[in-house]
Design brief:
The protein is of the alpha/beta class. It has 6 helices and 5 strands; from the N terminus they run βββαβααβααα. A 5-stranded mixed β-sheet has the order 1-2-3-4-5, with no helix packed on it. α4 packs parallel to α6 and α5 runs antiparallel to α6.
């Protein structure tokens, strides 16, 4: 077994990196800022992430790691953590994604793009299918949830769109 210390500090600055350790090439113990020193190839090889607890210095790079490699993987990275840790991290990530969807929908409408196309985009993703974790274990809202929320926002988006026509 190969054990690589990526970071073991509670802070950042200079050479300091927060808690993260790589076991062999595919297991990450905690996801602190030391993860940022890994190459893209090294990030792609990570199959499992174990989070010891939900302190920011142990989880800060997890969303960026997952976002960096998700589109290039056939299977999702598996994250192991106490329920309380997942309960802290995942709803917050989903909320941010939902807010980004809303802001993006309104901006596209104000820029003169038909906001109904956003719903079609997520319907296409949903139609692709594939293996996905349950929504409560995901950093992103499920496609169906996104579609429902976009449809709820559609009257306002269409009003903004029509003002640009």
């Amino acid at each position: 077994m190969k054990f690589r210390v990526l970071g073991c500090s509670g802070s950042i600055g200079g050479e300091a990196r927060t808690s993260s350790f790589l076991l062999d090439r595919d297991i990450l113990l905690d996801a602190g800022t030391g993860v940022g020193d890994l190459s893209i190839d090294e990030l792609r090889r990570i199959d499992h992430v174990f989070l010891s607890h939900s302190h920011l210095d142990h989880v800060t790079s997890l969303p960026l790691l997952l976002d960096t490699v998700a589109a290039e993987r056939k299977t999702p990275v598996t994250v192991y953590a106490q329920a309380a840790t997942l309960g802290v991290i995942l709803p917050y990530s989903r909320t941010q994604e939902s807010e980004a969807d809303e802001i993006g929908l309104m901006l596209m409408a104000e820029a003169g793009y038909d906001p109904r196309e956003a719903v079609k985009l997520w319907q296409n993703f949903e139609a692709l299918g594939g293996e996905r974790p349950p929504e409560f274990l995901s950093t992103h809202p499920a496609e169906g949830t996104r579609i429902e929320r976009l449809q709820e926002l559609m009257p306002e988006a269409l009003e903004r769109y029509e003002e640009q026509q």
